[in-house]
Amino acid sequence: MATESSSRSSVPIAQHNINDDLPSTYNSNRSDASRGSIRKINFEDLTCPCGRLRMHTSTTTDNPGRRFIRCPLWRDGCNFFQWEDDFAQNLLYFHIKHIKPQIPGGMGDVVEAAVEAIHVEDDGQNKKIMRLRTKLEDERKKSHFLLVCLVLSIVVLFGLMLFGKT
Asked: Where does the record place the region Disordered (predicted)?
């Protein structure tokens, strides 16, 4: 995985709710839903071999605003790094595996299949995003080339107008 070297914000994982951006309709508790809050995931026990993990926000051009989890000692060689959305997906798989046996009537398999279908769709969307990023980069290169050609044409035209009359 690529590492991120710049971050806009750094928040201890224990203080961060990975579900902050989900709408309240995902909440199973009606009283909480009416207040617009949702059940929080406890991050207090999340550590890497070096210590407590921290949440950061990417400021790179490739992933602007994308949140990630990393060891606070990453400069000292700890390579723990994970995008928040990947982390949330892994957490979902973990919970599905543990609650599947408790779901009656074979519905656990249905839930697991639905989550897998979402994962496949997510992979497809990620591939589409990568293709669009490549296309965008190609278009930026073309635009830059055309701008350079335009500026050079204006300079040549201006030079011909100034020096062509003498």
From this structure: 1-33
Task: Kindly state the percentage of the chain with pLDDT values over 70.
Answer: 70
Element (H, E) at 8: strand 7-12
pLDDT tens-digit series, residues 53-65: 788 888 888 888 8
CA distance 136 to 144: 12
Residue 64 corresponds to which tokens in the numbers above?
């602007």
Q: What is the pLDDT of residues 21-39, one digit of tens each?
A: 333 332 333 333 333 333 4
H-helix or E-strand containing 91?
helix 84-99
Q: How many CB atoms lie within 10 A of CB 66?
A: 15
Residue type, 65: G
Q: Is 43 within 8 Å of 14 (Cβ atoms)?
A: yes
DSSP line for 98-147: HHGGGSGGGHHHHHHHHHHHHHHHHHHHHHHHHHHHHHHHHHHHHHHHHH
- Look-up of token digits 């060689």: 77
Q: What burial letters (b/e) apply to 94-116, b meaning 16+ CB within 10 Å? A: eebeeeeeeeeeeebeeebeeee
